[in-house]
Amino acid sequence: MRNIAKHNAFVVRSVRNVDGLSSAGGATHSRLVICDESGQSVGATSGLGTNHWGIGIPECARRIADMVERAKEEAGIPRDTPLTSLGLSLSGCEQEATNRELEQELRTTFPDLAQSYAVSSDTMGSMYTASSIGGMVLISGTGSNCLLRNPDGSTSNCGGWGNFLGDEGSAWYISYRAVKVVFDHMDNFEQSAAPVEKTWALIKEHFSLETRLDMLPHCYAKFDKPFFANLCKKLSQNAESGDELARGLFREAGVHLARMILALLPNVHQDLVKSGDLSVVCVGSVWSSWDLLQEAFISELSKTSIDFNLKLVRITKSSAYGACYLGADSANFDLPRNYADNVTVLYTYTDPRKKAKATNGVAAS
CA dist 60 to 55, 234, 235, 328, Å? Predict the structure, then answer.
């Protein structure tokens, strides 16, 4: 553990499916933090996307190394001095075999990068920014994904299959549904219960269309998922202004997100909820429209009996810190952390049956 006081941990996180509403266009990017022994950032930078499924493992490793070198320079760490631990919480790193392959590429091609590695999925970085024992992460940004991790390390997943097989409740899915509802209505295939004119005008403006045929390149040859998903931000503005079709799309998203949580509840271990709460880390810009999701989200949850509270939280620091914690733990270094400073509570859901039982108990006593 040499030079631990100066450069104990490095972390890079590749952000996936979390910025479909961003004004920058939702382009996938990475964020890097170097922490000292007190857990404070001494160097930080950002870079291109690091999902190895899209760019290949060699290019992914090269991009990581590039960010390490830039952050080292900011932190005053010599280029040939390896970091004690390199925590990687990356989009695409769900499979142990490819995670090991990425680690081996980094060790072989960039031997001075780090002494030890901890490679995990992007959801893990978000989770460990909020808690040391695990919990649930629900991503709703460009795409969607839900992951549960119990204190014993066991995990369960719902979603995360991409736009061909899933992404319900995401910015992309909301945008897709807007186009689909309008086109079905105009085809007289399925009539929309709400007027489509405002949504159709928004679609034409966003994609620069003159006719519906002009939409086809955006679905095939020129398909750009983040750009497509960015329509969602404009739809949220329409919804806030009272457009019923847009509001209905967000209600549908609220139902889908609640169902992801419900799908994983049977796998929650009792030691994870012994405090009475299950922490659900809500990641992604769609959560900025919580007021549009909330009613349908709660209504869907209320259909199932839940013995503990669901504490929906949003992280206030970069989830790169969570990956930093993972990296430090893998190197057996006790990195100080204050989880209360890393999150803010969005909403706490208590089963109405639980409330009624508590009220009756007070009345009876």
Answer: 6, 33, 34, 22
Q: How many CA atoms does the CB half-sphere of 116 hold within 13 Å?
A: 18
Phi, psi of 139 (to 5 degrees): -90, 130
Instruction: Give the chain's mean pLDDT.
Output: 87
Give dist(CA 309, CA 291) in Å, integer: 20
Determine the pLDDT at residue 334. 84
Which pLDDT belongs to residue 319? 80
For 116-194, where are the alpha helices, taking DSSP H only?
A: 122-130, 171-186
Kindly give the pairing relationship between strand 41-48 and strand 155-159.
unpaired
Q: Is the dihedral of CA 43, 47, 50, 55 positive or negative?
A: negative
In angstroms, rounded to a whole number, what is the distance separating the alpha carbons of residues 113 and 115? Answer: 7
Backbone angles phi, psi at 184, to 5 degrees: -60, -40
- CA–CA gap between residue 89 and residue 121 (Å, rounded): 5
